[in-house]
Amino acid sequence: MTDKIFHWLKPLASLKLTIFCLACAIVLVFIGTVDQVHIGIFEAQNRYFKSFFLYFTPPRTTLKIPWFPGGYLVGGLLLVNLIVAHVARFRFSWKKAGIILLHSGLILLLVGQLITSLFQVESQMRLDQGETKNYSESFYYDELAVIDTSGKDSDRVISVPASQLHKGAKIVLPADSLQLVIHDYYANSALVNVSQLPSPNYPHLVLGPMAVSVPLRRTYKQDERNQPTAAISVIQEGHTVGSWNVATEFPQSFQAGGKDYQMVLRPKRYYKPFAIQLIQFRHDRYAGTDIAKNFSSRIRLMDPTQHEDRESLIFMNNPLRYAGMTFYQAGFDNNDTTTVLQVVKNPGWLIPYISCGLIVVGLLLQFGMHLANFVRRRVIA
Amino acid sequence: MNDRSIKRMIWLGMMASFGLTSCDNQKINVYQIPKEGVSMQTGSAGLVLSLPSSPAKWSKPAGWEEQPLSEMRLGSFKVVGENGSSADISIIAFPGQAGGLASNVNRWRGQVQLPPLGEEELKQTIQRVEVEGIPVSLVDLSTPDNSVKLSRILGAVLETPDRTWFVKMTGDPGLLESQRQVFLDFVKSFRFAPQLTDDHSGTPASNRARSTNDR
């Protein structure tokens, strides 16, 4: 049985596969970097590195033909290749301790990257001076939030990811027997005055007496955000409660089954069990110049569940780490009165440090042993 | 166990381990949050809007049928006349001045094929009253007599400190004539919740946040 497994695993341990995977990785990194100029870093990561295959879509079709292995496949194969090679080929000896340690470091690095790519959540917290928030917002994902505001002390949020919104979609909400029917959806749109429409028949969704939303091409630029608009009917137990057009700046209120609701399309929110208040943002410059010297945010962290209420200073290379999240100084706005903190939750953040440590120790051990042998031979000679 | 099943087992195991995705961004989530003034400020840029669910109350006149809410409507009704003619009544609200009284009345004029008027001329067509200390502008607009399809609008614009309310009745001119007093009583039945202390009236979007990496 074990022999049979090894028989099947043997091709996976081949050095040719390692070379093939490394060559593919080089090609992937090259095309991904070139294409990043057109589609931005986030989309390039998804298309080239967080995928099993790169796909080609022939013009005027919706076919997806895989034509090259993507990052998950290359990285996964490389990982399997490394592990299998060790299991099948290497036998432990002190002479090889350095190499084994080095390769364990590499395996851990690959596993760490997989964990990061699967579980890391990045978002932003934008705070005006004095403002307190208990949530951060995604820079890439949007949500349709249906908020039941009838509760006395709390609101219940039903968050539908924007990826589920498309023309004709029927979405059953897991509460209050509510159902949404999406009549139309623009993944990106612009708000214009009614009089700016090129013609009355130009596709648009009415948001108010003056404002209409017109569809735009999806943007992949790093400094731009898609602004979705959707035409939605709310249905409760077979009866239409109403139909509305919602956009980022245009929330809607409605009543259904005796409850008050708000419905809004907005950047996806990540609520936290604690709150952060911006006390002061500082943008220090070198004397007599406009050259930035330092950006820092003095914040107050309040977490009643952990009896935590303290101040902290976030500045370059000195993020705040709390509750498995890291808050970095990322940007500023409003004449230096608003700070933008990058919030990163990465359960695998320690892994690269450990794997780099293992690689360093492995290299030192390997070359140290070579050096020791060399010196010993010279002494004997 | 034959070769094929071992092979299948290995590949399935591999695919399953790679197929693990958190997928948190693809699922519908339900969660409770402490109550807050729903501030719609976005991470990128945008207006700040806050419309509590029902900051005004009104009494529905007898004979008016409630309709499903649509577009920006906070209230929607229908009334049917004796000869089968009907009229539609809508209530909408916008933060601030919503583009001003003149442009909104001219928009309504356009809907009944009337030419737009200057502010001074408009003033003469607008009747001003007060409801609960709130200034209300009333208009009565009809399509020109030579129109193919006759229509009429009875409109009221209520300007509360934080937003502007539009109450509009559209439909058959004859029916609207008989409903005129009902409509006026309806407008007078409006009662407003106390004004919000926060200034959430559409402030202009600020420029995009700058990165600390920018020069």
Task: Fill in the keyword field for this structure.
heterodimer; A: 381 residues; 3 domains; six-stranded antiparallel sheet; 5 helices; B: 215 residues; alpha+beta; Protein Transport Mog1p, Chain A; two-stranded antiparallel ribbon
Structure summarized in a few sentences:
The complex is a heterodimer of chains A (381) and B (215). In chain A, 30% of the residues lie in helices and 41% in strands.
Radius of gyration of chain B, rounded? Answer: 27 Å
The total count of strands of chain A amounts to 19
Largest interface: A-B, 79 and 60 residues
| Separate helix tally of chain B | 4
SSE order of chain A, one letter for each helix or strand = HHEEHHEEEEEEEEEEEEEEEEEH
Uncertain parts of chain B? 16-23, 37-54, 195-207
- Arithmetic mean pLDDT of chain B: 73
Q: Give the proportion of residues in helices of chain B.
A: 10-25%
Residue share in helices of chain A? 25-40%
The name of the CATH architecture of the domain at 58-192 in chain B is 3-Layer(aba) Sandwich
Largest sheet of chain A: 6 strands, antiparallel
N-to-C span of chain B:
65 Å
What profile does the largest beta sheet of chain B have? Answer: 7 strands, antiparallel
What's the total helix number of chain A?
5
Walkthrough of the structure:
The complex is a heterodimer of chains A (381) and B (215). Helices cover 30% and strands 41% of the residues of chain A. Chain A is α+β, with helices and mostly antiparallel strands. Chain A folds into three domains: 2-120 and 351-380, no CATH class; 121-133 and 271-345, no CATH class; 139-270, no CATH class. In chain A, α2 runs antiparallel to α3 and α3 (71-88) runs antiparallel to α4. Chain B has a seven-stranded antiparallel beta sheet, sandwiched between helices. In chain B, strands 2-11 form a two-stranded antiparallel sheet. Chain B has a domain at 58-192: Mog1/PsbP, alpha/beta/alpha sandwich (Protein Transport Mog1p, Chain A, 3-Layer(aba) Sandwich).
